[in-house]
Design a protein that fits this description.
By secondary structure, the protein is an alpha/beta fold. It is built from 14 helices and 16 strands. The protein folds into 2 domains: 484 residues, Alkaline Phosphatase, subunit A (3-Layer(aba) Sandwich); 50 residues.
Length: 583
């Protein structure tokens, strides 16, 4: 009798386990995508840093997968973020620029008319159609307004996000309490420009007056308006720069101007956790947490001031890790940790040019560490495009695994689609690949044979994964001219992509990244094997280029031209307010 009871009990348990497994398999996962800003691959503990403490991010690696060769689609902010959100190379969406800076300019970001085109599909739009609640907390940097300060054409709420709390632009030095004005290097140009325009307008007005086209009154009225316009142009980019650039937005509305950084980390965490609490009882959700860290201006709460051995930058990283930990704790508290896909990465490598100019930290590095890898932000060397990435999803990803084959941040888009059970758009090329077969261990082959590395709109390098000889090759066709002993270009903010300050390589430089990850020793193009590699990559480039449909460029001199009428403002004409956290 006891044996029969035991068998029945065992059978009941098995049935319950099967039913529970089937029920769980029908539950759609939640998604939390963490994106750091300017974080180097050597800045995280699980990637080898022993001077900065990142226990929360390290725990994700222990409980999930570490991607050691994850690459961004561009080494600068705006195009890289566009690729992450859409799963497509920036050249396909028009977010690859022909300009030197290659991003939505930090000089006119809030009042330019450029941004991620509305006909692009983001991963938020993808899952929103499947019943997901969606939110972005933090930095957007993919456009604001098109024609006026109130059309919000490029805002995230028009790109699939139900809720937006953060900065529509990027964090800059001016936003910090001790930040230096970026205007120090453009003031001379602005003064000279205003003087030249004033002289040109004066000459035109005098000529029109002498020709009898304009009377004295007309000259005075037009001249007055010209002076106002020139004065506004100068003031908005110098004296009022911080006021206009450093804005905090909730959905469509500017709620703080300029943003108060002393408390912004706590407020962002509270916003993220409140969103997850609201959504948890209603259905699945997607949270895109886009940190303001570690872009300058470097700022910290009091608890993290001096917490690291790596100055203000290290403090910044540790504060960001604390924020990750708070979100993870909330997921556990809500009972959602097991059914949430978490992906942490950076938008590109650490910045090499950021150095403090203020006492007592004059000369102190304020940019990230890219480990053993050459180059950094703005470059297609590994230091600029290889980013620290960890992924956790307990039902499918084994604990503590390491993926060393090349992957891409563009893979987030199709991976989310796969897990959410939605189809990919069929009317466009999706360059990313579903990572789950690789992460689950059901597929060993790399998801990409080729990854194309653009500098602006120019293809400068290609990563080729050869399954035949289990090798990873990197081919550089164009490299920036960097002075001997330096790590970055000196004359410009970003290394140029083309022209006299670059070197074109024919044949290209070929590196074996498994043996030479620091890209120090190019392979000699003296044998058939190397020429076969070059030939295969050249053919892949030709096929890739044939797949690109020309579109309008978003980041141009015309679209970046500032306009008073597109400038966000919370209470015109003062444009000054502070968030009421009770509303």
């Amino acid at each position: 009798m006891s044996t029969r009871c035991t068998m029945l009990a065992t059978l009941q348990i098995l049935i319950l386990l099967i039913v529970s497994t089937l029920a769980t398999s029908n539950v759609k996962p939640n998604f939390v995508i963490f994106l750091a800003d300017d974080l180097g691959i050597g800045d995280i503990g699980c990637f080898g840093n022993d001077t900065i403490h990142t226990p929360a991010i390290d725990s994700l690696a222990k409980e999930g997968a570490k991607l050691t060769h994850n690459l961004v689609a561009a080494p600068t902010c705006s195009p890289s973020r566009a690729a992450l959100l859409t799963g497509r190379y920036p050249i396909r969406s028009g977010m690859a620029s022909a300009l030197a800076q290659g991003v939505l300019s930090m000089i006119t970001t809030t009042d330019c008319k450029a941004g991620l085109p509305r006909n692009e599909t983001t991963f938020a739009e993808l899952v929103k159609a499947a019943g997901y609640a969606t939110a972005i907390i933090g930095k957007w940097h993919l456009g604001t307004n098109l024609d006026s300060s109130s059309d919000h054409y490029f805002y995230p709420v028009n790109q699939g996000f139900d809720y937006f709390y953060g900065m529509p632009t990027t964090l800059i030095n001016e936003c910090g309490p001790d930040g230096r004005y970026i205007a120090w290097f453009i003031q001379k140009r602005l003064i000279m420009g205003c003087c030249l325009w004033s002289l040109a307008y004066a000459v035109v007005l005098v000529v029109l007056h002498l020709l009898g086209v304009l009377g004295r009154r007309g000259v005075i009225i037009i001249g007055f308006h010209i002076v106002l316009w020139l004065g506004w142009n100068y003031a908005s980019h110098t004296v009022l720069f911080r006021q206009f650039m450093c804005v905090l937005v909730k959905n469509h509305d500017v709620i703080e101007q300029p943003v108060v950084l002393d408390t912004i980390s706590t407020r962002m965490v509270n916003q993220a956790n409140s969103f997850m609490e609201r959504s948890a009882t209603q259905g699945p959700f997607l949270l895109y947490f886009s940190f303001l860290q570690t872009h300058t201006a470097l700022f910290n709460m009091k608890n993290f001031t001096g917490s690291s051995k790596h100055g203000k930058y290290g403090d910044n990283v540790e504060e960001m890790d604390w924020m990750v930990g708070k979100v993870l704790s909330k997921l556990s508290e809500l009972g959602l940790a097991e059914n949430t896909f978490i992906y942490f990465t950076s938008d590109h490598g650490g910045a090499l040019k950021e150095v403090s100019v203020l006492p007592p930290r004059v000369g102190e590095r304020e940019g990230g560490w890219n480990g053993i890898y050459k180059g950094g932000k703005g470059q297609n060397w590994e230091g600029g495009i290889r980013v620290p990435t960890v992924v956790r999803y307990p039902p499918m990803i084994p604990r503590g695994i390491e993926i060393s084959v090349p992957t891409s941040t563009m893979d987030v888009f199709p991976t989310i689609a796969s897990l959410a059970g939605v189809d990919l758009p069929s009317d466009r090329v999706i360059d990313g690949r579903d990572l789950m077969p690789l992460l689950r261990g059901t597929m060993k082959a790399p998801p990409h044979d080729y990854l194309f590395h653009y500098c602006g709109q120019w293809l400068n390098a290609v990563t080729f994964t050869s399954q035949k000889d289990n090798a990873i090759y990197k081919l550089h066709y164009v490299t920036p001219n960097i002075p001997a002993g330096e790590t970055d270009c000196n004359r410009t903010m970003y290394c140029p992509c083309i022209g006299d300050e670059t070197t074109r390589h024919d044949p290209p430089l070929v590196f074996d990244l498994r043996r030479d990850p620091a890209e120090q020793r190019p392979l000699p193009a003296t044998n058939d094997q190397i020429w076969n590699i070059i030939s295969r990559v050249d053919e892949a480039i030709s096929q890739h280029r044939r797949s690109i449909v020309p579109v309008a460029h978003q980041i141009t001199k015309e679209t970046l031209a500032g306009s008073f009428w597109r400038q966000p403002c919370c209470n015109f004409p003062f444009c000054s307010c502070q968030e009421d956290e009770n509303t």
